[in-house]
Amino acid sequence: MKHARLLMLGAALVGAAMAARAQISTGSSLVKFPENYEQGVHYNTINRGNVREEMFTSADAVAAAKQGQPLPSGTVIVNEWYEKGELTHYFIMEKRTGWGTEVSESARAGEWEFQDFLPNGAPKPGEDGSACKSCHRSQSNHDFVWTYERMSKAN
């Protein structure tokens, strides 16, 4: 009986450890919610049906885009996502020198990492960034940024 309880306890601990590991590996743990991002440059608004997206980045990123250059390491792009006028999540892209090198070229989007955040700034569960990378790979000629041209025209 004592042996069976120990086995059950061990199985429970292994299960808890696996769940914690899955939670930690969800999304890009490299990307943190950016404080004061709205003090940067608001460079784009997209309206599609009942969805509105408001996009922000740094003045340095806008300056690079205006020159047709890759965006600098440290660039953060924040996309506030609203549905029916209510903020539902933030989509964050962040670029850092050397990010992504642990995976094959075909599985990354340059040096960009991606993370969705809930309205309270907590990482959105169940998102690992792979769908984001897959979609953004088609924009390699614009440093993997769909709104690069809009950024290049920002004030």
Description:
The protein has helices at residues 2-25, 59-66, 130-136, 148-152, and strands at residues 41-48, 51-57, 76-83, 86-95, 112-117. The protein is of the alpha+beta class. The chain has one domain (27-152): Cytochrome P460 (Chalcone isomerase, 3-Layer(bba) Sandwich), CATH 3.50.70.20. It has a five-stranded antiparallel beta sheet with strand order 1-2-3-4-5. The longest helix has 24 residues, at 2-25. The radius of gyration is 19 Å and the shape is globular. The relative contact order is 0.16.
Keywords:
Chalcone isomerase, 5-stranded antiparallel beta sheet, 4 helices, single chain, alpha+beta, 155 residues, disordered N terminus
In a nutshell, what does this entry contain?
The protein is an alpha+beta fold and 155 residues long.
Oligomer: single chain
- Shape summary: globular
Number of domains: 1
Q: Which bin fits the share of residues in helices?
A: 25-40%
Helix/strand order, N-terminal first? HEEHEEEHH
CATH topology: Chalcone isomerase
| Overall pLDDT score | 85
Low-pLDDT ranges: 3-27
Note the topology.
Blueprint: H1 2-25, E1 41-48, E2 51-57, H2 59-66, E3 76-83, E4 86-95, E5 112-117, H3 130-136, H4 148-152
Antiparallel strand pairs: 1-2, 2-3, 3-4, 4-5
